[in-house]
Design a protein that fits this description.
The chain has 100 residues and is mainly α. It has a domain of 59 residues. The chain contains 4 helices and no strands. Helix 1 packs antiparallel against helix 4.
Length: 100
């Protein structure tokens, strides 16, 4: 039994307007340190939760994003610009690997 979510990933990319962006080869950078960044600007809490929720659903078939999505879900209460950049990088990575 195979579980392919390429159609769902395409739908998510279109929903969050990430379909036309460049692709990423990895989910994160090496030795990336992200914490509670109180000095940076807050982002739309609802949109961040929707993106992370969609990524959690994709984790069923894409195990290589599980750690990053779990880490991003920690910041769902007070997401900042750096956290949104992290989940958008994961979306761009999914665009590259959606058929693998």
């Amino acid at each position: 039994m195979f579980l392919l979510q390429s159609r769902y990933i395409t739908k998510v990319l279109k929903k969050f307007r990430m379909f036309g962006f460049n692709v990423e080869a990895t989910t994160t950078e090496v030795n990336l340190k992200i914490g509670r960044d109180e000095e940076s600007k807050q982002v739309d809490n609802t949109m961040y939760k929707q993106i992370v929720g969609s990524l959690i659903f994709v984790c069923n078939s894409k195990l290589d994003i599980c750690f990053v999505v779990g880490f991003a879900s920690i910041f769902m209460v007070d997401p900042r610009v750096v956290h949104m950049a992290l989940v958008k990088k994961v979306l761009r990575y999914l665009k590259e690997t959606k058929k693998k």
